[in-house]
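Observation: inputs received (chain + iron/sulfur cluster).
Thought: call the complex predictor directly.
Action: predict_structure
Action Input:
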Amino acid sequence: MFSAPPIALYIHIPFCETKCPYCDFNTYARIEPLMPGYVAALIREIELWGDLLEHPTVRTVFFGGGTPSYLPSEDISQIMQTANRSFKIEEGAEVTLEANPGDFTPDKLTTYLESGINRLSIGVQTFDDHLLGLLGRRHSAQGALDAYRMAQDAGFDNISIDLMYGLPEQTLEGWESTLEKMLELRPTHISMYCLTLEEGTPFEAWVRLGRMSDPDPDLAADMYEMAQDAMSDAGYRHYEISNWARDGLESRHNLIYWRTEPYIGVGPGAHSYLGDIRFANLNQPREYISRLMNAEGGKPGRDDAEVSDLKKTIDRVPSVDTTEHIDRSLAMAETLMMGLRLDDGISIPDFRARFNQTPSEAYESTIADLTNLGLLKTSDDRLLLTPRGRILGNEVFSRFFE
Ligand code: SF4
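Observation:
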């Protein structure tokens, strides 16, 4: 039997009322009739993991999507009850739910609080109504402000806001105004993402066909710089390349990803990382439901001395579609790539404890080169990106995979 360490739990909700034209996440509009079957299957998957891993400790829970707030709040409550039965959720664990501003009602928010949700992540994206229309979002700028206040009035004191920049037709003045409106709310945490044109999305096709202007990368870089200054002036810590937080209110769940610590993801397309295996569920919600509902108690175990206990455990979950063995060298490169995204970088003693080597011993010439180029530095037993290294992050990270 595989003995699981404390984990984070990600719960995927694949429903959206409408599909935004820039989004390539594993989410679907117009499949609402699947909701009841989906919740039943999700509950089965959570129970199965709880049993197979012998009810491990859960450090954080994150409802992501998709639009978790689009699901009836009673379903969220039932899913949380299942998670509490199946795992030992740590006292005071961070429990986040992603939400669209238009979905809130006072009753819904109360049900969330009663279910144990103590943090909301609201997808505001921009406080410009024209851009919200372009993004295909269902809410207005005023609707987002009202939703934020409603969540506060209901009793939420830990609210994160998501914003997007580098949008077609977005100006520097417009972005400044969005930043000002967001800062007036004093959220605990802000994530800001630059728009990327993902292949297969309407946005990518519209730009390719000349029906929409191509976002300007130089302007996006100016917007990022403006955000850095505004957030620093407002007293936020820029703790990860795309994330800012008030002191002590960093996203604990996402820190687990950036520190390459173990997590289980449930729901279609959700990824997990346990021991030396990364694995993912199949993407299609219908197939996900059918596999879980047709294999109560999971798939039969196999008796094979060549296969590790962890792999045998994973193989028993019918929704798992792909597994990847993460060998030591890949684990080291990924640990550096993810950890260097953080402002406090990598703890060298922790890295040595995990891999029996310091980063400099494992990547001697690469680290010397990057340090000489002024992209990396070592300080107080930590390996960090310099400010210039932060701008050229992707080039730094790629060097560890050569
Ligand atoms: S609401 Fe979020 S997850 Fe759903 S389609 Fe829009 S961007 Fe994608």
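Thought: report the result.
Final Answer: The longest strand covers residues 88-99. Residues 54 and 350 are 27 Å apart (CA to CA).
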